[in-house]
Amino acid sequence: MQKIYIAGPDVFEVNSIEIGEKLTALCKKYGYEGLYPLDNVVDFSQSKQKIARDIFDANILMIQKADIIIANLNSFRGKEPDSGTVFECGYAYGLQKEVYGYIDNACNYIDSFAENEKFAKNGYFCDKNERLIEDFDYPLNLMLACSTKIIEGNFETVLEFLKGK
User: Fold this and answer.
1) What is the CATH number of the domain that holds 51?
2) Range of the domain at 89
3) Burial 33-68 (b: 16+ CB within 10 A, else e)
4) Is residue 160 included in any domain, yes or no?
5) Is 111 exposed, middle or buried (0-12, 13-18, 19+ CB in 10 A)?
6) In total, how many domains does the chain have?
7) Which of 11, 54, 66, 145 is deepest in the core (most CB within 10 A)?
8) pLDDT in tens, 112-133
9) Is 94 helix (H, G, I), strand (E, B) or coil?
10) How far is CA 53 from CA 47, 57, 90, 143, 145, in A?
11) Secondary structure class of 65 (helix, strand, coil)
12) Residues of the chain below pLDDT 70
């Protein structure tokens, strides 16, 4: 049975355990074994930095054991996906794993900026801080878009896609 590492900022939600149970149950429904980061056992009586390192090491091992990574790439604490999730996608890609991400809206990244959040300058769009806004007809930064199959929908949408491959 192929293993799916479930990446995303869902681990920061108040009901993160319940979310993990739901996502791993969906994996099972589609014939996969779900690996959810909060399934790792970590000793929380240690220093904060040792806890962080243990979480990091345990998640790395899970990614190494997985065949497929499915990542929640919706915006988290701003316009971009969770940085830890992005790292996990890149690490998995480097290991030549299949990497899939899901987002609620797969519009072109530049279109995700409201009209009052961008302006044209010298033929390009810039944000309020005069930084260029990437425009490659992808919903996210090119480094994610070129390494990750991005699917509009939710976790189950990706599982349905995998079964249809």
Assistant:
1) 3.40.50.450
2) 3-105+139-164
3) ebbbbbeeeeeeeeeeeeeeebbeeebeebbeebeb
4) yes
5) middle
6) 1
7) 66
8) 888 888 888 888 899 989 999 9
9) helix
10) 10, 6, 19, 26, 28
11) helix
12) none
What's at 36, amino acid-wise?
Answer: Y
Distance CA 2, CA 32 (A): 5
pLDDT at 156: 98
Give the pLDDT score at 12. Answer: 97
Domain annotation covers residue 17: yes
Asked if the structure places residue 128 within a domain, the reply is no
Alpha carbons 58 and 39: distance in angstroms, whole number: 10
**Residue 99 domain-assigned?**
yes
pLDDT on residue 116: 85
Q: Amino acid identity of 16? A: S
Burial class (CB in 10 A: 0-12, 13-18, 19+), 21: middle
Per-residue pLDDT, 123 = 86
